[in-house]
Amino acid sequence: MQKIFEALSSSPRRKILAYLAHTELNAGEIASRFAMSKPAVSQHLAILENAGLIESDKRGQFIYYRLMPDNLTNTLNAYVQEVCPVSRPLKAESANIARKRKASPKADPES
C-alpha cells in the first residue's frame, strides 16, 4: 500500500496515469508530453510499474505501457480524475489517441 501512495503522490505520475486512461503508449510517446528528461520519465514509469499501477510490454525497440485496470487503486484514481480539472484534457487526449489507433491500426506511433 505504501508503494501505491508514494506513486500517486507525484503530479507527473498522476498525469501519466491519465494519459494511459484509454490507450497504451510507448515510453517515447509519454516522454514527449513532459518537459523533463527521458530518464526522469523512465524513473516515473518504473515507480508506477513497481506499485502495480501499470504494466509494460516490450515490442521490438519500443516499450509500451498500459494501466492495470483491475487494480482497485486505478479504479479509485479514475474516479478522482473525473473531478480533477487537470486530468480532463489529458484523458481526452488519451481517448483521441485510442480513436485514431482504432481507425488506423497499422499506423506507426512514432511517425
TrEMBL record:
SUPFAM superfamilies: Winged helix' DNA-binding domain. GO terms for molecular function: DNA binding; DNA-binding transcription factor activity. Pfam families: HTH_5. The keyword Transcription applies. Residues 1-87 form the HTH arsR-type domain. Keywords: DNA-binding, Transcription, Transcription regulation. The keyword DNA-binding applies. PROSITE patterns: HTH_ARSR_2. It comes from the Bacteria. InterPro entries: ArsR-like_HTH, HTH_ArsR_DNA-bd_dom, HTH_MetalResp_TranReg, WH-like_DNA-bd_sf, WH_DNA-bd_sf. This is Winged helix-turn-helix domain-containing protein. It comes from Sphingobium nicotianae.
